[in-house]
Fold this protein.
Amino acid sequence: MRKRSSTALVSALISAAILAGVASAGLSDRWWSPGEDRDLPASISYENEYGSLTILNANGAVRTKGHPFFEPIGHNGRACVTCHQPSDAMSISVTTLRDRWAQTGGKDPVFAAIDGSNCPNLPQNERASHSLLLDKGLFRIFLPWPLKAPDGKAITPEFTIEVVKDPTGCNLHPVYGLQSKNPTISVFRRPRVVGNLKYVTQVDRIAMPFEVKSGEPLAVDPSTGERVSMNIMSDSREPTLRTQAANAALTHLQAHQGLTDAQLQQIIDFEQQLYVAQSFDRRAGDLTKAEGPPGLGPAAMLRGTPGILANGATNHLFGSFEAWSGSGADSADPGAAFKASVSRGAALFQTRTIWVRDVYNFNTLGVGNPQKRNCVGCHNMSMTGLDVAPGYMDLGTANLPHSEAGDDLPLFKLTCSPKAAPHPYLGRVIFTHDPGRALVTGRCREIGAITMQQFRGLAARAPYFSNGSAATLRDVIEIYDRRFDMKLTEQEIQDLTNFMSVL
Amino acid sequence: MIRLSLMLLLMINAAPASARNLSFLACPQLHDTSPNCWTAIYEGETYFIGAQRGPNDSYLPQMKHQVLVEGVVTDEPRICGGLVMKPLRVSVMPELDLSCDGPVLSGEGLTPPVLPARRPLASRPRDVVDGIGSFMRSEPPSPPYGVREFRIEFDYGTDILVDQMQKRVVEILIYATVSEARRISITGYSATSLLSNGTLLAEAEGLGEQRARKIGAILSNLGLTEPKIELAWVEAEEAPNGIDDAQRRRVTVVVTPAGE
C-alpha cells in the first residue's frame, strides 16, 4: 500500500482540492510582502510537506492595502505578515526563510538587523550573521534586564545573570548586551501562530480569578481590568492581543510611533477572525470530509468552543478519530493504513503512559513528582493542545541538563538568592538558554518555564519548540522519548508523528 | 479564633485512644500500584502518605525533596504497606535534596487505596465543574453579617496558596463584598514544628510577614480596595507541640462589616 503510484497520489490531491472548492496558491505567490494590494480570500490553501493547510477568514476576504497587519508601518520595511505568513500557518517555517534568503540575496526585510540577525552589529550581508534564523527559524527577542513591571516600576529579580557562552555576541556586546547603557538580554524564539486565537485568549474559567498554578491572581487586561488567559507569547508576557500588537510594532517593525487605537483594533479584528489548520493530507486525502474525524480543518476550529478540558476517556482532544480507526481493513482506500496510524496516534496522545518527572509547574502542582500521565495531561485544551490554565512549564527545552538546543544559542548561568524559593528540581544555580517566564517575574523557580503553543498547522511551520530545538515532528516525539524515558516503539513514534501532521 | 482552636481540640480528642501524633522528615517512596501510592519510612515503620488521583488533603510528595509528614496514626488497615494517618499533612520541603531521588518501586503485593469513582468530566466548559469560577457565581452568604474570621493554611516553608486555599480567599472576597466590609485585619504567622524525635524545625524568619503581605496584595488585586486593610505578623512565637503545628502555618483574616 505504501508503494501506491504517484499518479494516484496526484489525482487524489487534485480531486480533493476540487471537492474542497478552495483557492490553492502555487509556490510563486506564497510570499506576502508588506504593502501589497491584494485580497486575502475568505479561504486560501497552501501546500506543505505533508499536504496542505487552509486559512479561513471567518468574516470574509480582507484587502491588504492600508491594513496595518499588512502595511510596512515601521522603519525596516516589515509588516506583521512578514513573520506571520498565511502559507506557514501564520507563523514562518525555516524552509520559507531559506527560500526567501536565496530569492532576495538576504535583502528581504524579514532579515532586518534588529531581530532578524544574530545581533544588529554583525555584517548584515553575510549568511553567518543570520544563522539562527536560517538554521532554526529563530528571531532575537530582546528584553530589558533587570525587568520592569507593567507600571514601569523596577522589580528586584531573585537571581543574577552571567553569560557563559555568547555565540551571537549580542549578550556581551557593549551596545546591545547585558552590560550596556540599556541593559538587555537577548534570547532566540520561534514566531507563534496568529490564528485560532479565541482558544489562546480564553481565560481559565475553573480557577478564575486565580492562576491556579502559582496561587496568585491572573494578570489583567490593562485597559479593561478583566482577567486574561496568560497564554500569549512563550513567556506569557503580553496580557492581551492589543498590548502584544502595540509592542510588536515598536520592536519587530521598528515603528517610531505607536499604532493608533484604530490600527490596533483593525489588527485585533483581523487576528480574531483567522482560523488555521491542515486541511488536506497527501496520504489521507481531504481531511475535512463529513464522514472523517470531526476535529480537523479550519472550519472545525471556527465551530469549536474554547477552554474545554479534554480528558482521555470521554472528551477527545481533537475530536474522535473513530472514523479512521478501522481504516486498516479497507483496502479500497489507498490512505487506509495512514489513517489507521493517525487514529492510533490520537489514542496514544491521550493514553500512552509517561512518567512525567521534574517539570516545574506540572509536578509541583500537587500531583507528585514523578506523576504517571500522558500527553493530554499537559496539552489539555480541546481543539488546540494548549493548557486550559496558563501553560508555562519547565519541560526541559530551555534549561540544562535536558535542553537539546545546541551550541548556537547563548547560555546563561543564573544564580538565585539564598532567600528565594529555589527552582524545585535545579536548585539555585541554573544553566539555561532562555530563562523564559523568569524574565517576566524575576522568580528563581520559574527559570526556563516556557508557555506552550497550540498544535494547529504544525505541518506548515517546522521547527518546533520555542527555541526550535526539534527540527521535525518526529524529532519532537523523540525528544519526549528521551526526556521521559518513554521507551516508545517505532510504531508508536510513527503514529504520534502522523497524528501531529494532520492537525 | 477561640472557636477554631476549640474545633481543633475536638478533632484531636475524637481520635481513638491508640492514636499517636507523629511528625517526621523523610524521603518519599513511590510505588507503581494503580493508583500509584506514596509511602515514607520512619524508624523502621512504613506510612502511607498519598495516592495519585486523590482525594488527598495535601499536595503529593516530590522526588528530589524531603517531605515533612505531620499527622495522627490510626488503626485502619494498611494502604500500600503503610500505616494510615488521619488527619495527615504532607509538606514538600522547599530545598532540593538529591539524596531523595529514587526510582518508581514495584507495586507488587501492595494494596493500593480504593478511590471513590471518578466523576466523569463531561465535555463541558471547565467552569461548570466545581471550580472557583462557579463558586464565585454561587449564592453569596445572606445577612446578618457579623465579624468573621477566616483561616488560610500553608505548607511548610512556603507562601504559595494551594487550590483549596485559593477558594478560601475567594470566600473572603465574597464575604467582604456582600457585607460591605470596612476593615480587614490580616495576620500572618510562621511556625515551628516539633518533630517526634525532638528536633525543632523552624520556618524561615520573615515568612509570617511574607504570608500576610501576600494575602493583602491578593485581596486588593482582586478588588478589595475600599475596606481598610491592616497587616500584622507573628514570627514563630507560638510554642510547637508536635500536635497541631501544621495548623499554625497560617494567615488569619478578620472581616469587619460596615456597622460593626
Summary: Chain B touches chain A through 46 residues (CB under 8 Å).
